[in-house]
Amino acid sequence: MDRDMVNCLHYLYQLGELTPTQLNENDPRKRLFWCVPDTGHPLQGREIVITDPQTGFWKLAPGIFDLIDMLESQLRSMPKPDYALGYPISAAIRAQGKMRPAFLAISYAPAFEPVKLAVREAAVSANFECEVTGDLAAAGNIMDQVWQGIRGADAVVADITGENPNVFYEIGLAHALGKEVILISQKSEAPFDIRSSRRFTYDSSDLESLKTKLVAAFGEITARYPHEGNEPRF
Fold it and tell me: What is the longest distance spanned by two Cα atoms in the chain?
């Protein structure tokens, strides 16, 4: 979907209809929403619009109105775990018994390797499989991979020790998708705008205590499917 399609949806939602002549390149009203001259009729044949049999005008299909209203309602505040586009709808439904996906945002520094391992072990104990920012090995844009990892996750763990800017950026992505975020840090302080997330302090010399806290936190993550089970596996 390009900018012209988005503008067309906005126009139809706000003003109700478009006439075929308004889609003509020479019609000045087209300048209200058309950005590029070669787009053509971006909504035609997509079952997004319907043609009024009496007037021949284009209108949004009723179901599209309902979908837009639902999405707008969800985005009037920070998204929650039930945000409609928070997960890839096109992805296969996770089978019963398969581990739940999680994502870990953490510094790449070698000092955090033991913490990374502790988080992953806690995740496995709670039936989660934890993808880690710095371990994404596939070719391609790293931020696209981070976005996909966060979007597909049921939970995001973020280590804010040292206030790493990459970690905070990924927390922002997680919040924008309505993810449940578990913050961990070696200090008790946290910026006010992320204090609402579940948060644990830890001592790098006692990662077993961190693992115990994380297993409990993973166990409280909202279920996506009726068959979700959070029983720890020790």
Answer: 75
